[in-house]
Design brief:
The protein has about 220 residues and is of the alpha/beta class. The chain has a five-stranded parallel sheet, with helices on both faces. The protein has a four-stranded antiparallel sheet with strand order 8-9-10-11, with helices on one face. It is built from eight helices and 14 strands. The chain folds into two domains: about 1-120, Response regulator (Rossmann fold, 3-Layer(aba) Sandwich), CATH 3.40.50; about 155-225, Winged helix-like DNA-binding domain superfamily/Winged helix DNA-binding domain (Arc Repressor Mutant, subunit A), CATH 1.10.10.10.
Length: about 220
């Protein structure tokens, strides 16, 4: 599961990221609304943790943007504003949950699981399909032509990322950041993605699947028919 934390308090943000990464979440962190919009335009997130008060504006304006453009993405407001009026405003604006700072990190984890579980119960993005390839996003199992496909966690996340971004050119750095996190942003060499991509293509082919990955020279890769 991939999360975006939008929080301008660096110490709190680092604590949240460290905790959630230990729970096997992929986590990105930004501290302004403008950076958040950039990330939302480039990557797909299952859940967003949104502070209300940010250096360049109110998080509620971003909440409206998310609900208008990324309606399936769950949003949990994390805020120091403890008044009932703020909570009602946040929830009425489309937030899926509201948690007040300071909060225990295990409670935040439980709330993330709760809002994303509701998505699964409602059948939202439960099954991801592309022609003969099918991914069950609840059990994280993959089939090609009805045959079970055994993938590593990184290979499965790479497959989901490609299908969710079909017909879009994805740079090697974008893929690296999605799979390994923001620390790869400044790396000069991200050749380590090649082996994961090679293994994914090989396993799909062994199950009789089509290789939909196209190399766009000088730019990256595109999943397309």
């Amino acid at each position: 599961m991939k999360l975006l934390l939008i929080e301008d308090h660096s110490e709190l943000a680092q604590n949240i990221i460290h905790f959630l990464q230990q729970e096997n979440y992929l986590c990105d962190w930004v501290d302004t609304l403008s950076l958040a919009k950039d990330h939302l335009s480039m990557y797909e997130y299952d859940c967003i943790l949104l502070d209300i008060t940010l250096p360049d504006g109110l998080g509620l304006t971003l909440l409206h943007h998310i609900k208008n453009n990324y309606s399936a993405t769950k949003v949990i407001i994390i805020s120091a504003q403890n008044s009932l009026d703020y909570k009602i405003l946040g929830l009425d604006s489309g937030a899926d949950d509201y948690i007040t700072k300071p909060f225990p990190l295990p409670e935040l984890h439980s709330r993330i699981k709760a809002v994303t579980r509701r998505s699964a119960d409602q059948g939202i993005h439960q099954i991801l399909k592309f022609n003969e390839i099918e991914v069950d996003l609840d059990s994280m199992e993959c089939k090609v032509n009805g045959k079970n496909l055994t993938l590593t966690k990184k290979e499965l996340n790479l497959l989901i990322y490609f299908i969710n971004n079909k017909n879009r050119v994805l740079s090697r750095h974008a893929i690296a950041i999605h799979l390994w996190g923001e620390y790869t942003y400044n790396l000069d060499n991200v050749d380590f993605i090649y082996q994961h991509l090679k293994n994914l293509r090989k396993k799909i082919a062994e199950c009789g699947g089509v290789d939909y990955v196209q190399t766009v020279y000088g730019l990256g890769y595109k999943w397309s028919e």
